[in-house]
TrEMBL record:
Keywords: Membrane, Transmembrane, Transmembrane helix. The chain crosses the membrane at residues 12-31. The keyword Transmembrane helix applies. One of its GO terms (biological process) is photosynthesis, light reaction. The keyword Transmembrane helix applies. Pfam families: PRC, PRCH. This is Reaction center protein H chain. GO terms for cellular component: plasma membrane light-harvesting complex. Residues 5-134 form the Photosynthetic reaction centre H subunit N-terminal domain. It comes from Methyloversatilis universalis (strain ATCC BAA-1314 / DSM 25237 / JCM 13912 / CCUG 52030 / FAM5). Residues 144-211 form the PRC-barrel domain.
Amino acid sequence: METGAITQYIDVAQLVLYAFWIFFAGLIYHLHQESKREGYPLESDRSDSIRVQGYPPIPDPKTFRLQDGRTVTVPNDFRSPQTLKATPSGNWPGAPLDPTGNPMLDGVGPGAWADRADLPDLTFDGALRIVPLRDAPDYDVAHQDTDPRGLPVLGADGARGGVVRDLWVDRSEAIFRYLELDVPAEGGTRRVLLPMNFCRVGERAVRVASILGHQFASVPQPRATDRITLLEEEKVMAYYGGGTLYAEASRKEPLL
């Protein structure tokens, strides 16, 4: 027999290959099961008593200790406090949902948000991660870039929605996350946030394609003026995301 052979039909390389296959199959099973720690069991369109979990089953609960001292155990029996403000467009399971109120705020489709913690994100050393530039003197706009403060903000229809008042910086990533806007509202102005990934900063104006000019007045507003919670970030992003489909009725129509 040659070197490495155990018998005439089995050698070490063959056993290593089989062991790798078994390990890889187990890894796939483990990762698939771990992915079900959140969002499962699924809700059934047929009955509230049906537990939809698929295969492999939901893993046993595990407790995670967070940076701020809190603990989170998943999976758990948490159910979203959100109420579905939409009705199925058909009588079959999985039918598309039609919003019943303001589609930009109903949390449906591209405007949906996750129930993240209603607490601000923190840096590694426990400071507020996302703050206005006025509270972060160590950061500023690069001299070769356009400073958007004072520029008008235009919606997809070209109408003016507000004026940039400040920028909000992510101190962990050293990038700007939001523009703070002054938008006209009843009795004065409102301060709302515009995510940087939903706008294009030009030399004379900031342009937004997802919503129209008059819709800036309804952007969800953070409770505080110097911080934003994870849940508030979800709702702000969801509003602009919802606008990609619901800002105009024509956006919901088929392309052909």
